[in-house]
Predict the 3D structure of the following.
Amino acid sequence: MEILEVSPEDAVGAPDVPAGYRVRIWVPPVHREYSWHVEEFDLIGVTEATEAIEWAGVRAEGRWHEVFVMWVDSALDGTGRAVQRSRFIRLSGKSPEIAASETIILSY
């Protein structure tokens, strides 16, 4: 781990833009042949990250879940125009670990 000291004047967020959070709750497949299903929720206007994390834990009811902080950023599209894009970084949780793998052999 690397720790860097920074100035308090460095910009951190924008006070007029509320933080947003995305929550993913993973639902296991009903049959072995099926894939996992994910429920996604955007939480807007949450005042503390811990509030989003707690909500996700209650809603997940013991299932795998992830909480991401969400922000809007500008990026250039293929034509060089600036467009707004949502960005995410995971704060807590993880996606399910899928233990089984399959090998598919194709023959011609």
